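Dear Dr. L.,

I hope this message finds you well. Following up on our conversation about the binding site, I have prepared a predicted three-dimensional model of the protein together with MUC. For your records, I am including the exact sequence and ligand specification that went into the calculation, followed by the structure tokens. Please feel free to forward this to your student if that is useful.
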Amino acid sequence: MIIDRIEAILVDVPTKRPHKLAFATVAEQNYVIVRVFADGAVGVGEAATIGGPRWGEESTEGIKAVIDGYIAPVLVGQDARNLNAVETRVARAVHGNAFARAAVVMAVYDMVARADGVSVAGLLGGAQTPSLELIWTLASGDTDRDIAEGEEMLESRRHRHFKIKIGFGDPERDAAHAVKLAQVFAGRASIRVDLNQAWDEPTARRLLPKLAGAGVALVEQPLPRWNVEGMARLSATNPGIAIMADEGVASSHDALAHARLRAADAFALKVTKSGGYAETRRVAAIAEAAGIGLYGGCMLETGIGTAGYLQLFATFSHLAWACELFGPRLLQHDIVATPLAMRDFAIHLPDGPGIGVAIDPDKLNFYRRDGNRQSRKAG
Ligand code: MUC
Ligand code: MG
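The resulting structure of the complex is given below.
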């Protein structure tokens, strides 16, 4: 199965409501959809970014340029079936640029699995669960609106774990917002907060006990990603609240550094930030060896990227902190033909081969940036 062409398409999809994070408010999500072609077979993959090069270094424009200019040329002519060689070849040809590499790797796995009539999870050794408990992020930027949204999610049996985005400027106000939500949903939903690196160590040391006291179960990346030692000090001194690394743990080297210092109680896994399936599995293996819990993270993917992540997450024996593969639910429309099943507080692994979902060509045409739609960037 010789790869003959790789295509990278920029896609922008508006969200149902503004999604407010520490570093940006997102009204539209930006994607690179990748299609890999070989001997008449096709596979699809995706890289999602949040607010352009703000969550991390990569933007969709840069991802497409790297795929077109540097990844496609080293893969065209290669045998897609040698998946290990494909991942290594891409990693050797391109340093960093993990999202660009992962989107292509995802598409190659999808193509090979589809051709063999098996799922990507099957190709990775087999799913160990048919569904995963699914978190929702309350991030409207307004406490009352978040409460109403949370109530609706509980009522409709969609989600019973909420992640709250904070880190907007005034830490006391952030903490008060999280405490309020923790009180409102006490005993009915688990509450976690994501700072996206916004606090410094003294602020975290001062406010984490307050969050723990209100029942917040976990705090995600409170400190800048470089401050691994600070994360270790927080993990050691805040037993009432679990500390999770997200931006700080992308590569297996990051994972090892965190594990050595016991800088986190949990790692957020993301196929794109780790550059593909192989490296994400290495991060997970280090976590498991160190007794660090796994969490299935996301970058607000469409059904394509969500399915690509889900195929891997379902192969793990246990995700201690569940997963947040809710991206499609935040979008005004998904771009897949048949949406992923999300019900009874869980996301369900699709039955089909490959990643288990396929692009709806009409929706792709409508949302692709080089079509007629105007893109609105994050504020
Ligand atoms: C992040 O940092 O975890 C995932 C869900 C969400 O609401 O934001 C993201 C990114
Ligand atoms: Mg995060």
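In brief: Residues 194, 196, 220-221, 246, 268 surround magnesium ion (ligand 2) (CB under 6 Å).

With kind regards,
A. P.
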